Amino acid sequence: MTLDAHLEDRIAGWRSYVADHRVISSSDIDEMEDHLREQISDLVSVGLTADEAFLVAVGRMGGLDEVSREFAQEHSDRLWKQLVLTGVGRGEESGTPRRRKELAVVLACALGAGLAVRAGFEWLPETALLRNAAVLVLPFLTLYFAWKREMSVKSSALLALPFVLAAIVLDVFPFEPGGATEIIAAIHAPVALWFVVGAAYVAGQWRSHRRRMDFVRFTGECAVYLALLALGGGVLMGLTAGAFSALGIDIEPFFEQWILPFGPAGALVVAAWLVEAKQQVVENIAPVLTRVFTPVTILMLVALFVAVIASHSVLDVDRGLLILMDLILVLVLGLLLYSISARDPHAAPDVFDLLQVVLIAAALAVDLLMLTAMATRIAEFGFTANKVTALGLNLVLLVNLVWAAWLGISFLRGRTGFAAVERWQMRYLPVYCGWAALAVVAIPPLFRFM
Amino acid sequence: MFIEKDLVAASATPLVLGILAEGESYGYAIIKRVNELSQGRMQWTDGMLYPLLHRLERAGHVSATWRVADNGRRRKHYAITDAGREVLAERAAQWTVVAEALHQVWQSAQLPPAAAPGWS
Where are its TM segments located (chain A) (predicted)? Predict the structure, then answer.
């Protein structure tokens, strides 16, 4: 049956009204519009006029606020891009002053982080500064999110606790300067404390898997922004330094005293803020980046695997290579998490999901090779702090990758939804935090701070 | 007949899965089937069906494909998966227990006339 032009207008009007609810995507609206049209034509066939049928059909569809709330619960990934912009913006009038205030808060936090690092430059020996970097910078980022999420003073104070504990552990332990345990602590402290930033980012709702996923997304985007800022900053500084040296002015002391402490610390806070404010810009880059780097990483892993097997007996693999391999595996896992966070959870499995399983398989092959090598080294030379750390990290990654591969295969074969893949990775996140904390707190005393 | 919101929400998942177990279907047809099965006594807010279907899809209980209907419009069809059938069997067992218990208590308890069976 043909529906008259007036009805078409009304349906178009309904469509654009629904489209204002941004959590309902246009393919969802297509689905609902089809429903609406069927309902209308059924009602018309039992004798209602087109107008009446339209009203009844729209009425049965239900209040759009209610429906869109249901959609929002199901599709929180779509909400993510607005969450921050409109976290304030429900009352549009109140939005602008708070956004202006936000800029001030961001600048204050960036300045605070910079000053803290500057103070560290002044009063701490070099290795102590490195080990304390996270304790100096991350509290300011946490503070920003605590303010942004309007957390209560009590829960914000709770967030300060891990930083205090970390500062005590890092500065009371009698590390041997430049020793392995000190480096291990310096590497793992930022990882563990990053999860405290996460607790502030998710406004204390760290039990929710959706919010954890938001934080993973944030981490990935923040890394992208930080890289962009570093690149831009580097070019700018290079040019400035060049111009000044052409003028015969030596600005190196200025660089070392001010730019070096303020630059990276401030850039981190600003990057976090940019992710918050301009998510939509990068959101389109994330899926592209993961699609480019997944195949490239697979090639790299396969090449490494072959090279390691061909060049040496596994027994005398260099220690430096083991550490590098660990780093590569961490990178693979980061890539995996980032692509999971960028993926539309409702899409059916495609070639890219297959690639991802291949990536995991390649990583597993490398990981097993490394474990063999490490077991041999440990059997031959005994335990050292580095080996225990590398072994522990390897085991943590192995457990994750094995189960991720299994879930990935079930997903490809249509046995489970993508939700299972997501849930596993989100449930595993605290393990990283726990392991990093352990590496800071337990490994140095075990090896007498050597 | 007005049915309480929580009850509708609780019964919606097994009902939709059950309807899809009868064969592939799409949104409007599912709503029509619900009306048929309840002789029009169960009225859903139609819009709520879609978030529910998407939730089932994400959980892997149903799979969805876009097809082109006879009238040339795009239509999203849903089919139950093996995992969905398992969930359905589980839910069916749970509901049977609840229904049997309720049935017995209806028999032994004195009901006010308005809620007696057969009145709606």
Answer: 103-121, 127-146, 158-177, 183-203, 224-246, 258-275, 296-315, 321-340, 352-376, 388-409, 429-447
Sequence-distant (6+) residues with CB within 8 A of A225 are: A271, A274, A275, A282
Cα pseudo-dihedral A431, A436, A442, A448, rounded to 10: 150
CA distance A416 to B30: 23
pLDDT score for A278 = 65
CA distance A195 to B99: 47
Please choose, from the candidates A13, A70, A69, A5, the residue with its C-alpha nearest in 3D space to the C-alpha of residue A36. Answer: A13
DSSP state of B26: E
Q: How confident is the model at residue A92 (pLDDT cuts 50, 70, 90)?
A: very low
Tell whether A415 is within 8 A of chain B (Cβ): yes
Locate the domains of chain B by residue range: 5-109
Contacts of A265 (CB under 8 A, 6+ apart): A110, A113, A114, A116, A117, A136, A137, A140
Q: How far B107 CA sits from the closest chain A CA (Å)?
A: 35
Q: What is the pLDDT of residues A253-308, one digit of tens each?
A: 888 778 888 888 889 998 888 887 765 555 557 777 888 888 999 998 898 888 87
Q: Per mean pLDDT, which of A24-28, A32-36, A249-253 is the most reliable?
A: A32-36
Q: What is the pLDDT of residue A84?
A: 42
CB contact under 8 A, B47 and A73: no
Res A89: pLDDT: 38
**Does A350 contact chain B (CB < 8 Å)?**
no
Continuous segment of H or E residues that includes residue A330: helix A319-342
Summarize the confidence of residues B85-106 as an average pLDDT: 92
Q: Collapsing DSSP states into helix, strand and coil, what is residue B61?
A: coil
User: Domain extents for chain A?
Assistant: 5-74, 94-281, 284-446
Return the number of other C-beta atoms located less than 10 Å from residue B66's C-beta: 11
Residues B5-109, CATH architecture: Orthogonal Bundle (1.10)
Which residues are bridge partners to B67 per DSSP?
A: B75
Show which of residues 28-87 on chain B sit within 8 Å of chain A, judged by CB atoms: 28, 31, 43, 45-48, 50-52, 54-55, 57-61, 63-64, 66, 69, 73-76, 81-83
Q: Does A61 touch chain B (CB under 8 A)?
A: yes
Spell out which residues of chain A touch residue B48, defining contact as CB-CB under 8 Å: 62, 66-67, 70
Structure tokens at A122: 């002044």
Q: Is the pLDDT score of A133 beyond 70?
A: yes
Q: Is A64 on the interface with B (CB under 8 A)?
A: yes
Residue B118 confidence (pLDDT) above 60? no
| DSSP letter, residue A258 | I
pLDDT of residue B80: 92
Tell me what ipTM this predicted complex has. Answer: 0.79
Give residue B55's region: left, alpha or beta (phi > 0; psi -120 to 50).
alpha
Query: Which site among B31, B44, B45 would you substitute to test the A interface, given the most A Cβ atoms closer than 10 Å to its Cβ?
Result: B45
Asked if residue A227 has pLDDT above 50, the reply is yes
- Tell me how crowded residue A241 is: count the other CB atoms within 10 A of its CB: 17
pLDDT in tens, A379-396: 877 777 777 888 888 888
Higher per-residue pLDDT: B71 or A365: A365
